[in-house]
Write a structure and sequence with these properties.
Layout (H helix, E strand, L loop, with lengths): L2 E6 L6 H14 L3 E4 L16 H11 L4 E4 L10 H14 L4 E5 L4 H4 L9 H19 L4 E4 L4 E5 L10 E5 L3 H7 L5 E3 L5 H9 L16 E7 L5 H12 L6 H4 L5 H7 L5 H7 L6 H13 L4 E6 L5 H19 L4
Parallel strand pairs: 1-2, 1-10, 2-3, 3-4, 4-7, 7-8, 8-9, 9-10
Antiparallel strand pairs: 5-6
Helix pairs in contact: 1-2, 1-13, 3-5, 8-11, 12-13
Length: 334
């Protein structure tokens, strides 16, 4: 069964607002909620970046049904993997088993802040693989001592663990990355509705099979930005102001270090460019059509990003309920 999620976009809202939105998103019927985990917004105009783990801890206490997830956390530079293992286990307990740890190799924008530089992609992948090994060992309740190429752990144990280990979802793209990480993960994260990614994942030896959301199968979790507003012109303006960085794609976005860099890289992106990739305005059918591309590609879960703090509450109060009804009517039955 296809599931629809709501994104707690920490780059565009303050922590108290995010907790309020999370509560309301559960009330209107979203199935799960994901949170970005950034040190900085992409653009100065977004203006926020609270600590995602504090926000999620609070969200776990004002919700009772929705699953929660980081989308995504880099466990290699700002955070040591042993610390990620501890806080993920704590969130698993606070949420009573509703938390999934979404992991990826990170973005320069966030990771350079601790002054360790920005490694090449292959090194970042090496670091992520080693970090996953450490997190898995600690989540098994082991006393862990580790001396690796990138990390050291000395007699560490996570003392408070949920009964069932926290699920790990991995953000991957490309055949080599999928071959490397799919066998280490429980679920797939990808932001492009690509059937090739799902097929390659399912064809990888040792990878858990993505099976349309069937019990026990892996999930393929996508994300789609939208900008709902009764006024299409206002929606287009807001999407351009807040989300024009999105046009750069992962190859650009992963390596830029500052908001000034993103402003420069996106200075020639127009409203039309943004509106071509982000449904803008009151047309719910356009959003349903955009989500459908993920279902056609074999994704089981799609998290919506309502662009901008302005209008977020109105989206939840007026549009989210009818939109969820239409999405569920259009969703595949398997």
């Amino acid at each position: 069964m296809a599931r629809i999620g709501y994104t707690l976009m920490t780059e565009q809202s303050g922590p108290r607002e995010l907790v309020s939105y999370a509560r309301r998103a559960e009330e209107v019927g979203f199935d799960f909620e994901v949170s970005s985990d950034h040190y900085s917004p992409w653009l100065t105009s977004q203006g926020h970046s609270p600590y995602a783990w504090s926000v999620l801890g609070a969200v776990s206490q004002v919700t009772s049904r929705v699953e929660l997830m980081t989308y995504i956390t880099c466990p290699t530079m700002r955070y040591h993997p042993a610390v990620v293992a501890q806080k993920a286990a704590t969130l698993g307990l606070l949420s009573e088993g509703r938390f999934t740890l979404g992991l990826g190799s990170g973005e320069n924008l966030n990771e350079h802040t601790v002054g360790r530089g920005w490694p090449a992609l292959e090194t970042r992948h090496e670091m992520l693989e080693e970090a996953i090994t450490i997190i898995r060992a600690l989540h098994a309740g082991d006393l862990v001592t580790h001396r690796g190429a990138h990390f050291a752990v000395d007699s560490a144990r996570v003392w408070d663990l949920p009964d069932e280990p926290v699920r790990l979802a991995l953000a991957v793209a490309g055949e080599r990355a999928i071959a490397r990480f799919a066998p280490l993960a429980d679920d797939l994260i990808a932001t492009e509705p690509s059937a090739d990614i799902v097929h390659t994942w399912n064809s990888t030896p040792g990878a858990p099979t993505i099976s349309g959301g069937a019990t026990g199968g892996a999930r393929a979790i996508g994300q789609l930005p939208i900008c709902w507003d009764p006024d299409e012109a206002a929606a287009r303006r807001r999407a351009h102001e807040q989300f024009r960085w999105f046009a750069g794609g992962w190859a650009v976005n992963a390596d830029l270090p500052t908001t000034a860099g993103f402003a420069g890289a996106s200075q020639f992106v127009t409203e039309d460019d943004v509106a071509a990739s982000i449904p803008c305005g009151p047309d719910l059918d356009a959003i349903v059509e955009a989500v459908g591309a993920f279902w056609e590609a074999g994704f089981t879960d799609v998290a919506l990003v309502q662009v901008g703090d302005e209008g977020q509450q109105r989206f939840l109060d007026e549009a989210a309920g009818p939109l969820l009804e239409r999405l569920r009517e259009a969703a595949p039955s398997h």
